[in-house]
Write a structure and sequence with these properties.
alpha+beta, NADH Oxidase, 4-stranded antiparallel sheet, binds flavin mononucleotide
Length: 187
């Protein structure tokens, strides 16, 4: 798929088919996350791969999202922040969030390109998930990624995004208009 198509086709897909992606495919996805920019090139993300059905059911419960049960794989993205904390002090929490976002978006785009299905899950009970999966306190649970092949019945389309007109500013914050560029909003 060409780059723009991947960007446009990426969509949250919560409906999985029965076919299960091979571990090699899941590792390809993780590899793309691993190429994301990171603060000071520190590698602080850990990826917990789950295929055990009972564990996936526990994850669904911790997220209170039933649809997750049907995922053949769940990847849990965690961060271990100590090195970033030391190097970047009060900027560290922001930097970690930025890095997680970059890594997860890489992974979602690869998922789209490979014809797989996934949805970013950020709503979960941290303590339930930690206990269910024995995740140590040193690791922050960042994102839950249920992954599979898409259901053939339910197609997922990216949600429409509001027009950029109110969110692009020229020269001063809040200024949405510049005479020279009048044309870009009329296309
Ligand atoms: C930080 C974050 C947390 C999210 N958490 C959830 C979630 O817990 N459950 C869910 O179904 N979708 C979740 N989503 C997916 C969004 O609902 C989805 O991206 C949004 O509705 C736009 O749809 P699209 O991804 O198809 O463009 C989350 C997305 C982000 C970026």
């Amino acid at each position: 798929m060409d780059f723009d198509s991947v960007i446009r086709k990426r969509a949250s897909n919560r409906n999985f088919g029965l076919k299960k992606p091979k571990i090699e495919k899941i590792m390809e996805l993780i590899e793309t996350a691993n190429t994301a920019p990171s603060p000071g090139n520190l590698q602080i993300l850990k990826y917990l791969l789950i295929e055990d059905e009972e564990k996936i059911a526990k994850i669904a419960k911790a997220c209170r999202q039933e649809w997750i049960k049907k995922a053949p794989w769940v990847v849990i993205v965690c961060s271990e922040s100590s090195k970033v904390d030391i190097m970047y002090d009060e900027r560290a929490p922001k930097y970690i969030k930025h890095h997680v976002g970059a890594a997860v978006e890489n992974l979602l785009l690869k998922i789209t390109n490979e014809g797989l299905a996934c949805c970013w899950v950020g709503a979960f009970s941290e303590i339930t998930l930690r206990n269910a999966l024995n995740i140590p306190e040193s690791a922050e649970i960042e994102v839950v990624l249920p992954i599979g092949y898409p259901s053939k019945i339910h197609k997922a389309n990216q949600k429409p995004k509001p027009h950029l007109y109110t969110r692009v500013y020229f020269e001063t914050y809040g200024n949405s208009f510049k005479e020279d560029y009048r044309k870009i909003w009329t296309d």
